[in-house]
Amino acid sequence: QVQLVESGGGLVQPGGSLRLSCAASGTIFIMSSMGWYRQAPGKQRELVATITRDGRINYADSVKGRFTISRDNAKRTVYLQMDSLKPEDTAVYYCNGWNRWGQGTQVTVSS
């Protein structure tokens, strides 16, 4: 079994930064492609960024140049560095890997 736990969310002013972490635990023999998704109130969950097993990275157009996805295989952790945050980034952010979801972490961008 693999479990994913997100952390690092919170309240930040526009233009601020946050770094989200997603730690995987359990029986893990191979690295999975990983992704960050977000869901705002009244909207469907949407892709934010992904990193494949071979290191290919993709971002949603709305976050390109502002967000950076990375991973530490030794720690079995994926990160999402979020800079220049905007109010429209407000959402619950979820980590996905090994075909599983974490519980999510709230990010609120407000003045």
Question: Over the alpha carbons, how many angstroms does the gyration radius reach?
Answer: 13 Å
The ordered string of helix (H) and strand (E) elements is EEEEEEEEEEE
How far apart the termini lie comes to 41 Å
Q: How many individual helices?
A: 0
Poorly predicted ranges: none
By secondary-structure content and strand pairing, the structural class works out as mainly beta
The biggest sheet amounts to:
7 strands, mixed
List the helices and strands and how they pair.
Layout: E1 2-7, E2 10-12, E3 18-26, E4 34-39, E5 46-51, E6 57-59, E7 67-72, E8 77-82, E9 91-97, E10 100-101, E11 105-109
Parallel strand pairs: 2-11
Antiparallel strand pairs: 1-3, 3-8, 4-5, 4-9, 5-6, 7-8, 9-10, 9-11
Would you give an account of this structure?
There is one protein chain. With 111 residues, the protein is mainly β. 0% of the residues lie in helices and 53% in strands. The chain is built from no helices and eleven strands. The chain has strands spanning 2-7, 10-12, 18-26, 34-39, 46-51, 57-59, 67-72, 77-82, 91-97, 100-101, 105-109. Strands 2, 4, 5, 6, 9, 10 and 11 form a seven-stranded mixed sheet that branches. Strands 1-3-8-7 form a four-stranded antiparallel sheet, with no helix packed on it. Strand 5 and strand 6 (57-59) form a beta hairpin. The model has no long low-confidence stretch (mean pLDDT 96).
